[in-house]
Design goal:
With about 120 residues, the protein is of the alpha+beta class. The chain has one domain: Roll (Nuclear Transport Factor 2, Chain: A). The protein is built from 3 helices and 6 strands, in the order ααββαββββ. The chain has helices at about 5-10, 15-25, 45-60; strands at about 30-35, 45, 65-75, 75-85, 90-105, 105-115. The chain has a 6-stranded mixed sheet. α1 (about 5-10) runs antiparallel to α2 (about 15-25) and α2 (about 15-25) crosses α3. The protein is globular.
């Protein structure tokens, strides 16, 4: 059984927009919000979030997103996510992000993402 966070990130690799939107709606509360450095502010609601993820899929065809590590402290969930696929040069690439989420009744109510894992360079 996958968590709402895993369900959300598995949607990033889906090729069918309707299936992707359904998976995101299953993962997020109806008024849930999502923000990352590229979202230009917080997106509210599954439809807006799905539209944003659709842009990722269109700009990075064949790429996937997978939760590679997760934990939870006092109700806040943290996930390290690996985004991977073929880069512009045709070679396999992997980029990591760190995401923090609040869940209520098994749905994401708020998620904020950061590029990288926060590790010192």
């Amino acid at each position: 059984m996958s968590t709402p966070i895993e369900t959300f990130f598995s949607a990033w690799g889906m090729t069918d927009d309707a299936a992707r939107a359904d998976a995101i709606a299953d993962a997020f509360a109806s008024d849930g919000t999502y923000a990352d450095p590229r979202s230009q502010g917080a997106l509210s609601g599954a439809q807006a979030i799905a539209g944003y993820v659709n842009m990722f899929s269109a700009n990075a065809p064949g790429w996937t997103a997978k939760v590679v590590n997760s934990d939870e402290i006092d109700g806040t969930h943290r996930a390290t996510v690996a985004f991977g696929g073929l880069g512009p040069d045709g070679n396999e690439m992997v980029q990591h992000g760190q995401y923090f989420a609040d869940l209520t009744d098994g749905k994401i109510t708020r998620m904020v993402g950061f590029v990288g894992t926060g590790a010192p360079e």
